[in-house]
Amino acid sequence: MVARLSSIRRAATQLHITEAAVSAAVAHIEKQLGAKLVAKSGRGIVITEAGRVYAEYCRSILGLMNEAHAAVQQAETGRLRIGVVATAGEYVLLRPLASFRDRYPDIELSLSVHPRDVLFLELQHHETDLVIAGRPPRNTGLVVRARRPSRLIVVGSAEHCPDPLRTTWLLRGRGSGTRDATLALLDDLEITPPTLTLGSHGAVLAAAREGLGVTLIHSDAVSQDLESGALQVLPVTGTPLDRPWHAITTRTPTPTTRLFLAHLLDPGEVGANAFHPA
User: Fold this and answer.
1) Are 1 and 55 in contact (CB under 8 A)?
2) Residue 54 falls inside a structural domain
3) Which residues, by range, are in coiled-coil regions (predicted)?
4) For a pLDDT cut of 90, what percent of the chain falls above it?
C-alpha cells in the first residue's frame, strides 16, 4: 500500500492504522531484507528501486494467495473475477455473463473495465482470473484459451458522408488497442489527418454519429447504428482488420474460471456470442 500510494500517511489512512505502525512495519521489512525500500524526499517519501521490485513480488504473492483460496473451492460455489476492455464489456461479455449467472447463481462474480495494459498486468499478478481483450503481449506467461471473431471497420455519419482521408479521426484514450490500431492504419495509409481524442467508447460513437469525424471500431459495437442508418461503413484501404476477442488466463486457471470458459465455448448456452477453442 505504501508503494501504491507513495505515502506513509495515505497508506495508514487506507489501512485504518497509525502512521507509526506503518513506518515500523516498513522498517522491520527493511531490516529483514537488508535493503532500503523507501527514502525521504522533502516532507514525503519516494520508493527506491528495491522497494518497487519488492512491491511487485508482494503484489503477485497476495494475488496468488487469493487465487489459491479460490482454487480449492468447488467450481459452482467459487469466485470469478473478470476484466474486460470497454468494448468487450458492453457488446461481447454481458449476455454470456448473464446466462452464466443464471446457470450458476452461487458463484460470486465481479467485473472490472480497464485499458488492456492494466488488465494484462492485473492478470499477471493474479488479481484477475480471466480477461477478455485483444491479443496479450508475448513473454508474459498469459495463455489464450478461446477466441471470438471480430473485425475493425471504419465508420462515419451517414448524413455527413465524410471523406476518411481528409476528415478528423476520432481516437480512444491512451492504452486502447483500437487507438494503437488506428494510428498504425494511418501510418500505413501515409496520411496525417486531424485527430480528436475522446475519453470513452461511448463518446467516440456519439461524436461519429454527429459527424465530428470517422473512427476505427469493432463491428460488434456498431451493428445497431449501421442497421438504423446512423452510421455507415466507409471503404478504407487495409480495412476491415481481423481483430478477434481473446479469453485469456494465467497458466493455472481456477476451477470456476475453467467452468466459465466451458460456458463461453458452449453455443447451446450463449448462442452466436460463443467463443471458439484457441
Assistant:
1) no
2) no
3) none
4) 71
Q: Is there a single domain that holds both residue 110 and residue 188?
A: no
129 with 212, same domain? no
For residues 258, 264, 268, 274, the Cα torsion angle rounded to the nearest 10 degrees is -150
59 CB neighbour count, 10 Å cutoff: 18
- H/E stretch holding 187: helix 177-189
Q: Is residue 62 part of a domain?
A: no
Q: Which of 78, 82, 144, 149 is nearest to 119 (CA)?
A: 82
| CATH number (domain holding residue 9) | 1.10.10.10
Number of structural domains (the chain) is: 3
- CATH code of residue 169: 3.40.190.10
Q: Tens of pLDDT along 108-155?
A: 999 999 988 899 999 999 999 999 999 998 888 899 999 999 999 999
Q: Cβ contacts of residue 235 below 8 Å, gap of 6+?
A: none
**Strand spans (E) along the chain:** 38-41, 44-47, 79-84, 108-113, 130-133, 143-148, 151-157, 169-171, 195-197, 215-218, 231-233, 241-242, 245-249, 276-277
CB-CB contact of 159 with 186 (8 Å)? no
- Report if residue 128 sits inside a domain: yes
Domain span at residue 40 reads: 2-47
Q: Quick one: 82 and 217 in the same domain?
A: no
Residues of the chain with pLDDT > 70: what percent? 100
What integer pLDDT is reported at residue 42 of this predicted model? 85
Here the cell at position 52 is 518497487
Q: What is the mean pLDDT of the chain?
A: 91
